[in-house]
Amino acid sequence: MTTPSFAPFIRKRPWLMNWMRPLSKWYFDNSGYRKLGLRADDLIPEESETVQLALKRLPPKEAYDRVFRMRRAFQCSLAHQLLPQTEWTKAEDDYQYLSPIIIEIEAENSEREDLDSMIIRKKTAATRATGNQIESKH
Question: Where is the signal peptide (predicted)?
């Protein structure tokens, strides 16, 4: 799920952030998913195990709302129509509801891999002197 991003680079530089903000607003407004009533996190592909687990961890109301938005957008797509402008997703309503859960699951998986790759050895006289008893396969 995680891909390379310029976001941390841009966030560290306020002048660049101020320059990019109107461009990002224009991009999100013209991408079209809001005109179908969707949020940005609705566009995340569901094929990975991480996203599947994140969807299971969603609160029931948020999961129901997501399914409703997806079905309504699919119906609009079949009819080749957009929603009435009053039903478009507003910028303030387009918050990340799935991405934080995905990041949390990726951190859990990374921690699990680190713990699974550790080799723990019994202390011997040589290791007592140096204090090294845990090694990593990495």
Answer: none
Residues 6+ apart with CB under 8 A from 70: 38, 42
Q: Are residues 3 and 40 in the same domain?
A: no
Same domain, residue pair 26 and 64: no
- Please check whether residues 43 and 92 belong to one and the same domain: yes
36 shares its domain with 104: yes
How many domains in the chain? 2
As a whole number of angstroms, the distance between CA 132 and CA 123 comes to: 8
The answer as to whether 58 is a domain residue is: yes
**Which domain range does residue 94 map to?**
32-108
Residue 107: CB atoms within 10 Å: 10
| DSSP per-residue letters across 71-128 | HHHHHHHHHT-PPPGGGSPPGGG---SSHHHHHHHHHHHHHHHHHHTEEE----HHHH
pLDDT tens per residue across all 138 residues of the chain: 557 788 888 889 999 899 998 998 888 888 899 999 999 999 999 999 999 999 999 999 999 999 999 999 999 999 999 999 999 999 899 999 999 999 999 999 999 998 888 888 777 776 666 665 555 555
Query: Both tokens of residue 124?
Result: 């011997």
